[in-house]
Amino acid sequence: MESPLNVLLVEPDYYTRYPPLGLLKLSTFHKLQGDGVTLVRGKKLIETPPERVYVTSLFTWDWKSVWDAVRYYKHLYPRAEIRLGGIYASLLPDHARLSGADVVWEGLLPQVETLLPDYSLVPTWQSSILFATRGCPRKCGFCSVPKLEGAPVAGEATVRSLIAPQHKKAVFFDNNILGLAVWRDVFQELIDLGIEVDFNQGMDARFVNDENAAMIRRMHMPFIRLAFDYAGIRAAVERAITCLNAHGIRGKRIIFYVLHNYVDDPHNFFERVRDLLSWGVAVYPMRYEPLATLEKNKYIAPGWTEQELTAVAEARRVMGFGGAFPPYKALIEKFQRARSFHDAFELRPMRRTWAVPEPILEMALEHQQEGSVRKVQKARWRREKDWRVALA
């Protein structure tokens, strides 16, 4: 029988809204084997030297903090094996190996997929994070999911088994739940559980129909996220909104991610934003970043200029709320009167008569749009206390 390991789990010092799901699952995995586990954030000196160190990673542009963590722990504990995984490591494994990690893991860890994360490591966090499915049937060029998760497949564990008993909210990271037939079973299980639900990565508007809209209505889902990534799905987007409205889901409960700086141009983007606002839903612009970029907000697509991208960012700050454009009267009228992108995104502070819903305020946290929320609103940003407090 092998001796128990001392295992160190490290989340580098980059910004993230959520606790490190993969590391929490690894904690459960090792504790089941009798190993000792410690979770830290950034660079910390711990009392018991580890035999193994797991370092996770997030976006590719956060690579410097990942390298800092790997090199710090490699120097501090030269006998420990350093294993690096996560999104950056999976998308840029050759670059990740230059960090000095002993092992770079690409993709998922099958042995931990069905395990309940060890939330005892983040006691202030109050929601369960999970995947009911992996992968996506689409193969969008801007998306990393096919490389990270492979072919679409239903999870082997039940939803109930992946939700901690003490939690009253479940945050799903599924990338296209409606794209797999198992959505019916998942939705019914959530209806039966009666907990609050957030499908964080958004649902595919092309798959919305009366059947799933009726089940969404029965779930405790304060808001629904979808995406309008390109003009070619306009009819499907309008149909989805109409369908949701018919089932009593409307207005500020519907939030659309709107991709820009990809294969579109400013006028195309303006038309999508205008249409969504006129249909009475909130708009959350998402600037495209190449999958392998090492620096954020540097890529400028052929159809865009730096000045136009800056105009979108400034409009989100001046005219928006938490980085989003809500469907309030003044903003709808401004976009309807506009004849061009430049008319629509001309900076003019709007009268703030629309109550900003918590979903948009939480999205500001998720996507680092803190500067676009007024200080008087910050106290309402999140229900969960900052999970990092326990790691200080």
What does the model show?
The structure is a single chain. By secondary structure, the chain is of the alpha/beta class. The chain folds into 2 domains: 6-112, 3-Layer(aba) Sandwich (Rossmann fold), CATH 3.40.50; 119-388, Alpha-Beta Barrel (TIM Barrel). 31% of the residues lie in helices and 14% in strands. It is built from 13 helices and 13 strands. The protein has a 5-stranded parallel sheet with strand order 2-1-3-4-5, sandwiched between helices. α6 (183-193) runs parallel beside α7 (210-218) and α9 packs across α11. The longest helix is centred in the first third of the chain and has 14 residues, at 63-76. The radius of gyration is 22 Å and the shape is globular.
Keywords for this structure?
13 helices, alpha/beta, Rossmann fold, TIM Barrel, 2 domains
Shape estimate: globular
CATH topology of the largest domain: TIM Barrel
Rg value: 22 Å
Q: What composes the largest sheet? A: 5 strands, parallel
Instruction: Please tell me the overall pLDDT.
Output: 90
The H-and-E topology, N to C, reads as EHEEHEHHEEEHEEHEHEHEHEHHHH
Approximate helicity band: 25-40%
Classify the secondary structure makeup into a structural class. Answer: alpha/beta
Count, helices: 13
Largest sheet strand order: 2-1-3-4-5
Q: What is the CATH class name of the largest domain?
A: Alpha Beta
Distance between the termini: 35 Å
Strand content: 5-15%
Low-confidence stretches are: 372-383
Number of domains: 2
DSSP strand tally: 13
CATH level-two architecture of the largest domain: Alpha-Beta Barrel
